[in-house]
Write a structure and sequence with these properties.
By secondary structure, the protein is mainly α. It has helices spanning about 10-30, 35-40, 60-75, 85-100, 110-115. It has a domain at about 20-115. The chain starts with 8 loop residues before the first helix and ends in a 21-residue tail after the last helix. The model has no long low-confidence stretch (mean pLDDT about 80). Pfam families: DUF5365 (PF17326).
């Protein structure tokens, strides 16, 4: 018999927040809105029931959270990386972990490294600075 500890609601919520952060802060830097809409349609970073290896355990939740955090960190610093090989390895290892747990992430490091910058462009996916409508 093996005892497994289930993930907490806070961890599940944090996973959702990190996925949302990728869609609202990371993807708009690299992709135009039309492509981001396509990614949502392809269910990128949404767990696929057929592929899902994530069983809602504490260990699995920590692995997913840490993989999402590393991907976010690498992509935030992709233009300033001194050792591209090291960044590439971290990105690929963690994107592989996400795919293993059923979080579809079909990107390579070079897709982001060679992407045309979208910074400064208006995007409907970027979170507004405030929620007040004047």
């Amino acid at each position: 018999m093996k005892v497994v500890v289930a993930s907490t609601e806070e961890q599940e919520r944090h996973i959702d927040e990190l996925v949302e952060q990728i869609y609202t802060e990371i993807f708009p830097k690299f992709f135009p809105d039309q492509e981001i809409k396509s990614l949502k349609g392809q269910k990128v970073l949404q767990p696929q029931a057929a592929d899902q290896m994530y069983n809602g355990t504490l260990k699995d939740a920590f692995q997913i959270i840490s993989s999402l955090q590393v991907v976010i960190s690498v992509l935030n610093h992709i233009d300033h990386c001194k050792d591209e090989r090291k960044y590439r390895e971290m990105f690929e290892r963690n994107s592989c972990h996400l795919n293993e747990y059923g979080y579809f992430f079909p990107f390579s490091f070079s897709q982001f490294k060679n992407a045309e910058s979208q910074e400064g462009e208006f995007s409907q996916f970027i979170k507004p600075a405030n929620d007040w409508v004047v």
